[in-house]
Recover the amino acids of this structure.
DNA sequence: ATAAATTTGTTACAAAAAATAACTATCGTA
DNA sequence: TACGATAGTTATTTTTTGTAACAAATTTAT
């Protein structure tokens, strides 16, 4: 595959910032700003200018020296670099509390992450319709991954079933997983996993309020 | 305030691990394990034994040398240390997509974080009933914070209104905020903020699948 | 009662990640 | 053609995180 990537490992912090850059750049575009320098963008994003240049450099060369970056094109460039200039079909496994919440949260769709399949092994849930999506037996995951072209898996089962859900996903050929359960899962080397857990954030705030520590 | 805290700054990574310890310890308790050493707990949690001892040390001394930790008491100790051995009343500001999803996601309640007030400034939403909770005008936030004893704020507005929501919360005397919008907010020194944003995680997976990079 | 074994709390060290600064190359303009 | 502006790159520093080593305390065995 030919691509402009220069570096294999992209720091997490970079990805987080890229999301911010996109946001700020989109606003700039609305205000008809056409070109912006790393220095000005840095001010708007509240980061260091070198930081921005370095973040972008992971994906190749794009700015014009002596000029800056073309706002509109830069947005596209970043989106393409992140692989979010297209739609990703997702499978959600575990139609519990959180699963339902995510199914109803259509911001994902707005960002190009379409939850196209909802899976659960509970016979009482199978067949249920949530937001126009029918809950399907997890055993059919493999078939559906093929027929619906699902590429990413979201795990929202109870923690003790996370590994099983993982196995189903991996077996079905999914190699990108976002695990919303507070459990580590083990996967083969070619599979990528991200963990999302709210509670540590809540705990952090709770402990700070509790102790009244100061910054 | 008298307490066992030894250190002001508790690393984020520590809090994340403490959440894991609680989980594993709770399982151990179910299996009637009464005492456990840092070495064994470490194996169960897949971390380094020193790590565990150090993590706990932030909150004071609790284990018994030559013996280990008493499982049941350690759970309570950690919960107390984190300030999660009690209920926290939360205000949710912004009854959009995500806001509704969170209101319906009762896992928060199970962990002691009760969303007791839902606020929005959209007249069409005010008065609406979600999960037994009436949506209230944001201008009434201050009153409700007092009467309902709300201590934490969750921001789920559109990003461009996050700062305004923040101001309302701060003005109402809230000093712990969890910001679910992809925007930085500015707060006075005594206010603690945590950021939760799904999309960088999605982006990360997307980019890895996109590039097919390897670990 | 004493020594050995165990295991914590603490400190010192090492590694990794991230941020910043400094430098070099390129572009546009006067 | 030279100068100012600004990107790309490399080097350095800082911060964060994790690991290892060791002294202090406790229990168990002799």
């Amino acid at each position: 595959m030919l691509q402009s990537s220069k570096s294999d490992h992209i720091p997490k912090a970079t990805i987080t910032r890229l999301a911010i850059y996109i946001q700020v750049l989109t606003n700039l575009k609305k205000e008809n700003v056409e070109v912006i320098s790393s220095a000005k963008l840095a001010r708007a994003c509240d980061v260091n200018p070198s930081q921005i240049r370095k973040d972008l450099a992971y994906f190749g060369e794009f700015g014009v020296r002596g000029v800056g970056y073309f706002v509109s094109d830069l947005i596209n460039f970043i989106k393409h670099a992140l692989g979010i200039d297209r739609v990703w079909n997702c499978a959600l496994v575990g139609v519990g509390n959180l699963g339902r919440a995510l199914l109803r949260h259509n911001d994902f769709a707005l960002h190009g992450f379409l939850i196209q399949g909802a899976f659960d092994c509970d016979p009482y849930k199978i067949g249920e319709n949530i937001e126009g999506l029918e809950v399907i037996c997890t055993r059919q995951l493999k078939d559906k991954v093929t027929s619906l072209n699902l590429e990413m898996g979201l795990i929202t089962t109870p923690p003790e079933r996370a590994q099983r859900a993982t196995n189903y996903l991996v077996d079905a050929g999914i190699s990108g997983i976002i695990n919303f359960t507070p459990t580590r899962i083990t996967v083969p080397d070619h599979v990528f996993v991200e963990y999302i857990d709210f509670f540590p954030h809540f705990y952090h705030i709770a402990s700070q309020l509790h102790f009244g520590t100061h910054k």
About this structure: The mean pLDDT of chain B is 90. The first helix of chain B runs from residue 12 to 30. Chain B touches chain A through 66 residues (CB under 8 Å). Residues 11-14, 47-48, 50-51, 54, 64-67 of chain B lie near DNA strand D (CB under 10 Å from a C1').
